[in-house]
């Protein structure tokens, strides 16, 4: 399976450096970065967005943010995003039953290993990932009761970032990079 378009033959030095860094970090050929080289402003903006992703912040630990990224990836039905954001999920204690729940194949409430905050973050992520966006006031009150303002911004921006990548990657027909292999 190939993307809708090939990367440009010539890529500017600055973008080549950024691509090299992303490929060094991931250990994979990063076709999204290479294809974005057709429009350097999009490549740079996307690179900055990706470099600022939250991985741990206060009570929002790596597991919580990985659950959010995975939930957004499944909600957007993006094979590349699912592949990348599910990579090494077990190392963060995310088990097979939890993955089924993130996929929507099990009810969140039936998975006893999710904390109440994790369930709420996953539900919030699903709402952030749907079109049109609809937030019931009672649900938002629940979120506000369980997460402070900073945490809400991190949750929303993390889900939105995955949605940005999902739409961009799918619009360019970019296949999974093989993280799950």
How does this structure look, described?
- The chain is globular, with a radius of gyration of 17 Å.
- 60% of the residues lie in helices and 0% in strands.
- The chain folds into 2 domains: 13-51, no CATH class; 62-166, AhpD-like, CATH 1.20.1290.10.
- The longest helix is centred in the C-terminal third of the chain and has 23 residues, at 149-171.
- The model has no long low-confidence stretch (mean pLDDT 95).
- The chain has helices at 13-26, 31-36, 40-51, 62-76, 79-85, 96-103, 116-128, 137-146, 149-171.
- The protein is mostly helical.
Specify the helix fraction band: 55-70%
The CATH top-level class label of the largest domain: Mainly Alpha
Q: Could you tell me the number of beta strands?
A: 0
Biggest beta-sheet profile:
none
The domain count comes to 2
**Quick one: CATH superfamily of the largest domain?**
AhpD-like
CATH topology tier name of the largest domain: AhpD-like
Give the percentage of residues in beta strands. under 5%
Question: Structural class, from helix and strand content?
Answer: mainly alpha
**Mean pLDDT value:** 95
Shape: globular
Rg (C-alpha, Å): 17 Å
Low-confidence residue ranges = none
Distance between the termini: 15 Å
Please, how many helices? 9
**CATH architecture classification name of the largest domain:** Up-down Bundle
The H/E string reads HHHHHHHHH
């Amino acid at each position: 399976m190939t993307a809708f378009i090939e990367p440009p033959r010539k890529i500017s030095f600055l973008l080549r450096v950024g691509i090299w860094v992303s490929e060094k970090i991931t250990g994979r050929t990063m076709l999204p970065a290479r294809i974005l080289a057709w429009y350097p402003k999009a490549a740079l903006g996307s690179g900055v967005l990706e470099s600022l992703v939250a991985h741990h912040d206060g009570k929002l630990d790596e597991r919580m943010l990985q659950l959010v990224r995975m939930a957004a990836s499944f909600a957007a039905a993006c094979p590349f995003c699912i592949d990348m954001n599910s990579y090494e999920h077990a190392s963060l204690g995310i088990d097979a039953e939890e993955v089924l729940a993130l996929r929507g194949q099990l009810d969140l409430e039936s998975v006893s290993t999710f904390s109440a905050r994790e369930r709420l973050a996953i539900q919030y992520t699903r709402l952030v990932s749907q079109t049109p966006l609809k937030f019931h006031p009672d649900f938002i009150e629940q979120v506000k009761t369980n997460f402070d303002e900073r945490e809400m911004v991190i949750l929303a921006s993390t889900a939105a970032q995955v949605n940005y990548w999902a739409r961009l990657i799918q619009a360019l027909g970019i296949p999974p990079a093989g993280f799950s292999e």
